[in-house]
Design goal:
The complex is a heterodimer. Chain A is an alpha/beta fold. Chain A has seven helices and 16 strands. Chain A has one domain: Glutaconate Coenzyme A-transferase (3-Layer(aba) Sandwich). In chain A, the strands form five sheets. In chain A, strands 3-2-6-11-12-13-14-15 form an eight-stranded mixed sheet, with helices on both faces. In chain A, strands 1-16 form a two-stranded antiparallel sheet. Chain A has a two-stranded antiparallel ribbon with strand order 4-5. In chain A, strand 9 and strand 10 form a beta hairpin. In chain A, helix 1 crosses helix 2 and helix 2 crosses helix 7. Chain A is globular, with a radius of gyration of 18 Å. Chain B has a single domain, classed as Glutaconate Coenzyme A-transferase (3-Layer(aba) Sandwich), CATH 3.40.1080.10. In chain B, strands 2, 3, 4, 5, 9, 10, 11 and 12 form an eight-stranded mixed sheet that branches. Chain B is an alpha/beta fold. The chains are: A alpha/beta, B alpha/beta. At the A-B interface, helix 3, strand 10, helix 4 and helix 5 of A face helix 5, strand 5, helix 6, helix 7 and strand 8 of B.
Chain lengths: 265, 322
């Protein structure tokens, strides 16, 4: 048995998805920890791009919570510039992957990070909004969404569409004027991994955390994602991953804390 | 060009010719000393109702001392360009200074979210990149910038952007209007008395915003001789004629850090992060903003030399920041 938090599980699963010798646009918060873990264990030549203009930093640990642009985050970058240039790299197609968080997601991978409930003027809950998420989801080739596994976050209709997935289905992005052949690629949660069906562009379950069933994982979602025939069993966080996360990246434990989970090795 | 879709947000927009007229009449080309105290600079250059923007972030090189002075002088009805702002917008709303916010990134913590839900401040949703593009258009003296994002989303519908068919590709493209803030605040590593300024490290849109803004207030960590800029011109971030006021404010980014000068003060930042209820906010402002005369008194009485020295000692990463 191994014990870990839902945050740790999500970070580890996402870190295994990144590809070495590629570029990735890293969003604020969890994606930063994913990239740091991947860089240390799996993808030492991954080039991280940040919206404030850091290209290819070799970030120092421990992670200073909340920061994205501080001296440890941007240590030994290849280039420092600013926001208009950072998004220009994505706009011209230099950025292979984008990685952002989400408060709510629908069947086409459209993302809400702006508000929940109420009206636009008087929302029940107001969040930070797009930040650079809309640019990342619009302009990078493949977008990875990282979120905690809460079924109520998977909704038929978003309270607000902050950043684009496949909009209303196949061809939706191109019709709206977004760059062609882009879009969400994977959705990583603390219990599951999703992709998108090529024909329908709808969310499809690809894997579940070892020991869980598709039924448990999907229960409570407002829509029913497609389920791939051969589901992958997601390996729970390894001892090595947890060591790097807990001892190097976040020794304070403040960022990686969360709901306790356990799984068979 | 036919407008296919138009966002609903109210926008602050200036005709490029009107901005040129402002520059012609108000921006001094002669090299004159512009050193002011923070009280003089804010009182002279920030008016009620102004649109304000700043660079860089709440945790790194933000113009925190200038923001506190705006709150201390109780400016009203400001429209804030919020980007990389975890705390400033919340403080400006808490101080009753801000009535409208263009979002980028609204800021985190429940205080600012609740202020929006309760209708105490109006927000208009954009994106970080869209606001940076708007600033670039403002800086180029052109009326808008075409961008290939926002498209298809509610963010676009709630912004002030428009969608048209691009005459070159025939595809839909999003146009974001130029932004010319009334005031741009920036904390820099080095400046001279004329306003030439250097930033080390990354930034959001320091040059764009300084060019796009009517009034630019620079707070400088360190004052340097003007000759330093001529000896190494590739490192100049802002040429003097963009700048209206220079305020010498050591530790001017505190509680944020300034790269290679001092680390951020996480303990103080946690005090800001902990603010949820109105009375906590008013308690914070009473103690750290209204309760002191100026930045020097704030550092003396609320932070202290030992703490500042310790933060400076911990800023050990120097590579690249010189």
């Amino acid at each position: 048995m191994v014990e870990f938090t839902d945050t740790e599980c999500m970070i580890c699963t996402a870190a295994r998805l990144l590809e070495d010798r590629k570029t990735v646009f890293v969003g604020w918060g969890m994606p930063q920890l994913v990239a740091m873990l991947a860089e240390r264990l799996y993808t030492p030549n991954l080039v991280q791009v940040f919206e404030f203009g850091a290209i290819g930093p070799q970030s120092l640990v421990p992670f200073v919570r909340g920061t994205m642009g501080g001296p440890t985050n941007v240590y030994r970058s290849l280039s420092w510039s600013n926001m208009n240039w950072a998004f220009a790299y994505a706009g011209t197609g230099y950025v292979d992957y984008g990685m952002i968080g989400a408060a709510q997601i629908d069947a086409y991978g459209n993302v809400n990070s702006t508000l929940l409930g109420g009206t636009y003027e008087r929302p029940a809950r107001r969040f930070p909004g797009s930040g650079g998420g809309n640019e990342v989801a619009s302009l990078c080739w493949k977008t990875i969404l990282v979120m905690k596994h809460e079924p109520r976050r998977f909704v038929e209709r978003l309270d607000f569409m902050t950043s684009p997935g496949y909009l209303n289905g196949p061809g939706g992005r191109e019709k709206a004027g977004l760059p062609r052949d882009t879009g969400p690629w994977r959705v990583v949660t603390s219990k599951a991994l999703f992709g998108f069906d090529e024909e329908t562009k709808r969310l499809a379950l690809l894997g579940v955390l070892k020991g869980l069933s598709a039924g448990t994982v999907l229960e409570g979602m407002e829509f029913r994602p497609l389920v791939t025939e051969r589901l992958e069993a997601i390996v729970p966080p390894t001892a090595e991953e947890l060591r790097v996360l807990r001892q190097q990246i976040d020794p304070s434990g403040i960022v990686i804390r969360g709901e306790q989970m356990r799984a068979e090795r | 060009m036919e407008t296919l879709l138009q966002g609903t947000a109210e926008i602050r927009f200036t005709h490029p010719d009107d901005f040129r007229d402002w520059v012609r009449q108000h921006k001094r080309r002669e090299m004159v000393e512009k050193l002011l105290t923070e009280r003089e600079a804010i009182s002279r250059y920030v008016a009620d109702g102004d649109y304000i923007a700043y660079d860089f972030s709440s945790l790194t090189r933000g113009p925190q001392a200038l923001v506190r002075e705006i709150i201390r002088q109780r400016r009203k009805d400001l429209w804030v360009c919020a980007e990389f702002t975890l705390h400033e917008t919340a403080l400006l709303v808490g101080g009753g200074c801000a009535s409208r916010i263009d979002v980028g990134f609204l800021g985190y913590g429940s205080y600012i979210g609740r202020a929006v839900s309760e209708g105490r401040v109006r927000v208009f949703d954009w994106t970080n990149g869209a606001l940076a593009s708007r600033m670039l258009a403002g800086a180029r003296g052109i009326p808008f910038m075409p961008v290939r994002n926002l498209l298809g989303t509610d963010t676009l519908r709630r912004s002030g952007a428009r969608v048209v068919n691009d005459p070159f590709t025939g595809d839909p493209v999003c146009l974001v209007p130029a932004l010319n803030p009334d005031v741009f605040l920036v904390h820099v590593h080095q400046a001279d008395a004329f306003g030439n300024a250097r930033i080390f490290g990354t930034n959001l849109f320091a040059l764009e915003a300084a060019m796009a803004a009517r009034k630019v207030i620079v707070s400088a960590e360190e004052m340097v001789d003007p000759l330093e800029f001529r000896k190494d011109p590739s490192r100049t971030t802002l040429p003097y004629f963009l700048v209206d006021a220079v305020v010498h404010l050591p530790f001017g980014a505190y509680p944020a850090g300034l790269q290679a000068r001092y680390e951020l003060d996480l303990e103080h930042i946690d005090k800001l992060n902990a603010i949820q209820a109105e009375e906590q906010m008013q308690g914070y402002l009473a103690e750290y903003v209204y309760g002191v005369e100026d930045h020097a008194e704030f550092l003396d009485e609320k932070v202290g030399w030992r703490r500042l020295q310790d933060l400076a000692r911990r800023a050990t990463i120097r590579e690249g920041y010189h």
